[in-house]
Amino acid sequence: MAAETSPLAQFEIKRLVQMDVGGLDVSFTNASLFMVIAIVAVTLFLTWSMRSRAMVPGRMQSMAELSYEFIANMIKDNVGSEGRKYFPFIFTLFMFVLFCNLIGMIPYSFTVTSQIIVTFALAAVVFIGVTLIGIFKHGFKFLTFFVPSGVPFVLLIILVPIEVISYFVRPISLSVRLFANMLAGHTLLKVFGGFVVGLGLYLGWLPLGFIVVLTGLEFLVAFLQAYVFAILSCLYLNDALHLHH
Amino acid sequence: MELEAAKMIGAGLATIALAGVGVGIGNIFGSYVSGSLRNPAAAPKVFGNVLLGFALTEAVALFALVIAFLILFG
Question: Domain spanning B2-73: which CATH class is it, in words?
Answer without folding.
Answer: mainly alpha
